Amino acid sequence: MRISSVIAYRIHIPFKAVFAHTLHSRRATEAVILIVKSEAGCIGVGEILPRPYLTGETIESVLQRELPALVLRWLERKFADREAVVQALRDDLPQCGRALSTFAGWELAMLDLAGKVFSFAAGEVLGLETGPELEPGVVIDFAVPTHRLEKHCMLLRLAGRRHVKVKVGLHDDLHRLALIHGVFGIGQSLRLDANAAWTADYAIGLLRQMRRFNIDSIEQPVPARDLEGMRKVREATGIPVVADESLCSFEDGQSLLSAHAADIFNIRIGKCGGFLASFRLVQLANEAGLRCQLGALVGETGILSRAAEIFGRRVPGFDFLEGKRQNKTLLLQDIVEMPSPDEDAAGKGLGVIIGSKDLDQFAASAPTVFKNPQRRTA
């Protein structure tokens, strides 16, 4: 298998409804879709969904710097088998630095391509055993106004949703939590997510008032680099702290452990560098006695969404998949056809199909084509 060309599509897909938290309010998703082609004409697909507040990447930096540098290292390379591709991905990961979203998209495209060429499911790099599908975890964000919370929660309860996360950081957080708690009842635990909105002292005071609502965890209560503040929150309140914005790279995980700053690692394929890097973070957490939860980036298309579902079925220890299939509920239209629920029946690689008309419909600019290490055209 030789990589002959790479096409990068910058896409813009509107949301059906706004999604908001303390760091951002989104009405659409912007991503880079990768099409990696082999000399024999097979293709692999990947998705890059950069977040500057996570890894520092932007759409512009991906297309102008991170992706061209990565493609330079891979174009024209030949691979004899699956093991050669996987080893090359492992070897290249340290070179990506903080460009973890770019590498995640590249890794997915390479595993999709290699899976089709060498006849294996992409998830096999994580393990041969496939577990049951994870239950969905839902998020109540700021786009749900306070006066509509009770009706919204009632619909979630009627739908049997058991894993509920609430975005916090508003002036009426306590009132909103009281409404939510009133609908779900005392037996329903709630996970909170502050998206780095608070100081440690403010978080401690507020969380002590919130404990009466059966709080299971607090995600990123303070800014990402404030590891001391995270430690203070978990020790002062006894509420488990989830590291999200603080956790992207393996080095981030090591720093969190050294600072005793987290109880739970939030794994998201698109911010943690793909399958292999995310798996290393899970292993790191397990060895330290920490838990992990699996989530999605807001606005993922079916490529990253599919990757998260595969990861959750191949890697044990997760109770739910937060944002599961949001590509169908949040995006105005997805670019990916829904695969079979049975991963083995979904084909080789990632088991996804992209419509070229959909890519053209949502393209924000002309695609960037990489044909060899010396030449790039747009």
Q: Please describe the biggest sheet, giving its number of strands, its sense, and whether it closes into a barrel.
A: 8 strands, parallel
The tally of structural domains comes to 2
Mean pLDDT: 94
Distance between the termini: 25 Å
Task: Spell out the key features of this protein.
about 375 residues; alpha/beta; Enolase-like, domain 1; TIM Barrel; 2 domains; eight-stranded parallel β-sheet; five-stranded antiparallel β-sheet; 13 helices; 15 strands; about 35% helix; about 20% strand
Overview of this protein structure:
By secondary structure, the chain is α/β, with parallel strands linked by helices. The protein has helices at residues 59-74, 82-92, 100-118, 149-158, 173-184, 200-210, 227-237, 250-258, 269-272, 275-288, 302-314, 326-329, 356-362; strands spanning 3-20, 25-38, 43-48, 135-140, 163-167, 190-193, 215-219, 241-243, 264-267, 291-294, 320-322, 336-337, 353-354, 368-372, 375-377. It folds into two domains: 3-124 and 351-377, Enolase-like, domain 1 (2-Layer Sandwich), CATH 3.30.390; 126-346, TIM Barrel (Alpha-Beta Barrel). 37% of the residues lie in helices and 22% in strands. It has an eight-stranded parallel β-sheet. A five-stranded antiparallel β-sheet has the order 3-2-1-14-15. Strands 12-13 form a two-stranded antiparallel ribbon. The model has no long low-confidence stretch (mean pLDDT 94).
Please provide a brief summary of the model:
By secondary structure, this protein is of the alpha/beta class. The protein is 37% helix and 22% strand.
